[in-house]
Amino acid sequence: MPELPEVEALALDLKGRLEGRAFAAVHLAAFSALKTYDPPVSALVGTLVDDVTRHGKFLDIEASGLHVIFHLARAGWIRWKDEVPALPPRPNSKSGLAVRIVLDDDTGLDVTEAGTKKSLAMYVVRDPLDVPGIASLGPDPLADEFTPAVLAAILEREGRKQIKGVLRHQGTIAGIGNAYSDEILHAAKMSPYRPANGIVEADLDVLYAAIRDTVGAAVERSRGLAASELKSEKKSNLSVHGQTGKACPVCGDTVREVSFADSSLQYCPTCQTGGKPLADRRTSKFLK
């Protein structure tokens, strides 16, 4: 799933490619992806791209006062096309294509989604805050406004909720997903099950530094990369997420996994749970 660093780099890459270009056509191949109806998609034709930015994990292409916003969800991605096929894509084909954007020089973008669970979303709005997911976002972890005091207030408000879930919740902190929450907690040497309001004083400083350093370093590594390189860059720099059964790069212990209905988390017992494995999120008592 693309998270803040990948979407930040994707926005930077696309800004260099799209700025000043005009929308020639927008083809919906998966009608379920479009979540808005006013303005219509047809209103984009002829508009000029002014900027490409992000809000949390949302990608925002601004064109002549309109905003085309994508949430790539778990399996979505955007691929640059040096040459767009002349024929429009067939709706609801099995290619994985959701949206094709054609520019005035016959280059363009293919917005794709792998798998059968279709969660990718596209919005055409006049104001990004018209997208409910953007309007409800928590603070950006790389913004100057995200201070230790802001984090402390969040943790206190979340009470005994497990810190893993707090970090992932977009209405609490924007842009951090499953992968980087695992990486942050590994860097902070904290159990994913630790209660949020139990992280105070020195531990708060450690967690704050882990958030800023982990996400910030990922952004810097990704900056300047083409969209086609971002997924492999992310995977090659993960310490515990997706590394089940491999050696922890810090202590050499075996990275463990806890599975849930639709996701999983990875952690290092030695670094994060005092050497004790987390058998199950409902029964584990290892909170430190």
TrEMBL record:
Substrates-to-products reaction catalysed: Hydrolysis of DNA containing ring-opened 7-methylguanine residues, releasing 2,6-diamino-4-hydroxy-5-(N-methyl)formamidopyrimidine
Alphabetical list of SMART domains matching this protein: Fapy_DNA_glyco, H2TH
Record keywords, A-Z: DNA damage, DNA repair, DNA-binding, Glycosidase, Hydrolase, Lyase, Metal-binding, Multifunctional enzyme, Zinc, Zinc-finger
Domain named Formamidopyrimidine-DNA glycosylase catalytic: residues: 2-93
Any Pfam family the entry gives: H2TH
Transmembrane helix as UniProt keyword: no
Keyword Hydrolase in record: yes
Alphabetical list of Gene3D superfamilies matching this protein: 1.10.8.50, MutM-like, N-terminal (3.20.190.10)
Membership in a protein family: Belongs to the FPG family.
Protein name: Fpg/Nei family DNA glycosylase
Organism expressing this protein natively: Nocardioides plantarum
Top-level taxonomy: Bacteria, Bacillati, Actinomycetota, Actinomycetes, Propionibacteriales
